[in-house]
């Protein structure tokens, strides 16, 4: 029985440290579990943070408002575009017409805008550069419109006798009242010029053949009107004689020996050349102040053939 008690006592004695160890073991185990749990939680958090960072880096940048960006990029001192003190409208069809409303507008600015719309150079006299104009008109054809804009106006035209189109303005001159006329070659230029050489080198009475030749071709220009009488004469010769009578250069750019058999009496130069051939380009100047026109140059050339 003593042995039994001793054994029991020993069992109790051993049980106490076992319980303590167990308790300690449990405590150690708990700490170990908590430590592993903390490490695992930290690792998960780091993995989640890395995944979030990667997704943010791969996410496309938000679209920016172009208008808003443009507003932000606009300089602080930028000013809105100044409205012009005039309204200009140019219509090309069905016929060329111009509308203008200007209130103390600079002639230079109006001329620049008109030149841009007509695609025609415009030249100003010295006094017209800084002049202010106030004018209003609507849907006027070219020449009446130009006359309302300046006291002295010249217009250089090109007339293509075969196109059927109205004369094409090549240059407009808004000149001062006391300014002389612009040179004939201001916009109408050309280096080619054909010469007419005829006559007898010997003085004396014309031969019978020369008299008949004079009768076969007769050109007269009187009171701004041209008359042509030609009996089976080369067109190039007729044009050279017209140029001689008008005092203008003639450029023959073809070897075509077309003959002319016609009689035209007292018509403007433009109407005469239209009747002679569809292959003539006539350059004229219109003096709108004096309501006059005069020829500047004649060019005779076959049309360029376009390959089909």
Question: What this model shows, in words?
Answer:
This protein has 308 residues and is of the alpha+beta class. Helix content is 37%, strand content 29%. The protein contains seven helices and twelve strands. It has helices at residues 2-58, 66-73, 107-118, 142-149, 208-216, 235-246, 269-276; strands at residues 86-91, 97-106, 122-124, 132-140, 152-160, 168-175, 217-222, 225-234, 250-252, 259-267, 280-287, 292-300. The strands form three sheets. Strands 3-6-5-11-12-9 form a six-stranded mixed beta sheet, covered by helices on one side. It has a three-stranded antiparallel beta sheet with strand order 1-2-4. The protein has a three-stranded antiparallel beta sheet with strand order 7-8-10. It is elongated. Residues 1-41, 50-57 and 61-76 have low confidence and may be disordered.
Arithmetic mean pLDDT:
77
Give the DSSP E fraction (strand runs of 2 or more residues).
25-35%
The ordered H/E elements are: HHEEHEEHEEHEEHEEHEE
CATH topology of one domain: Phage tail protein beta-alpha-beta fold
CATH 2nd-level architecture of one domain: 3-Layer(bab) Sandwich
Which strand order do you get reading across the main beta sheet?
3-6-5-11-12-9
Helical content band = 25-40%
Please provide the count of β strands.
12
Structural descriptors:
alpha+beta; single chain; 308 residues; Phage tail protein beta-alpha-beta fold; three-stranded antiparallel sheet; 7 helices
């Amino acid at each position: 029985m003593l042995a039994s008690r001793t054994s029991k006592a020993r069992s109790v004695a051993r049980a106490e440290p076992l319980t303590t160890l167990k308790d300690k073991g449990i405590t150690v185990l708990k700490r170990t579990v908590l430590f592993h749990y903390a490490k695992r939680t930290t690792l998960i958090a780091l993995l989640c943070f890395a995944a979030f960072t990667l997704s943010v880096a791969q996410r496309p940048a938000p679209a920016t408002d172009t208008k808003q960006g443009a507003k932000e990029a606009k300089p602080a001192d930028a000013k809105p575009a100044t409205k012009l003190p005039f309204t200009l409208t140019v219509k090309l069809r069905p016929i060329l017409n111009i509308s203008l409303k200007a209130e103390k507008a600079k002639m230079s600015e109006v001329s620049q805008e008109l030149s841009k719309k007509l695609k025609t150079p415009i030249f100003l006299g010295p006094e017209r550069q800084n002049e202010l104009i106030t004018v209003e008109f609507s849907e006027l054809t070219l020449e009446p419109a130009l006359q309302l804009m300046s006291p002295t106006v010249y217009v250089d035209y090109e007339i293509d006798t075969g196109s059927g189109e109205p004369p094409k303005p090549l240059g407009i001159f808004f000149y001062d009242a006391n300014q002389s006329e612009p040179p004939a070659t201001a916009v109408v230029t050309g280096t080619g010029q054909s010469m007419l050489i005829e006559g007898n080198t010997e003085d004396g009475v014309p031969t019978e053949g020369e008299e008949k030749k004079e009768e076969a071709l007769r050109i007269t220009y009187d009171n701004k009107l041209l008359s042509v009488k030609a009996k089976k004469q080369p067109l190039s010769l007729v044009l050279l004689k017209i140029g001689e009578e008008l005092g203008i250069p003639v450029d023959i750019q073809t070897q075509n020996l077309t003959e002319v058999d016609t009689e035209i009496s007292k018509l403007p130069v433009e109407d005469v050349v239209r009747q002679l051939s569809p292959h003539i380009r006539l350059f004229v100047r219109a003096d709108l102040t004096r309501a006059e026109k005069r020829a500047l140059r004649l060019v005779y050339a076959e049309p360029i053939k376009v390959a089909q």
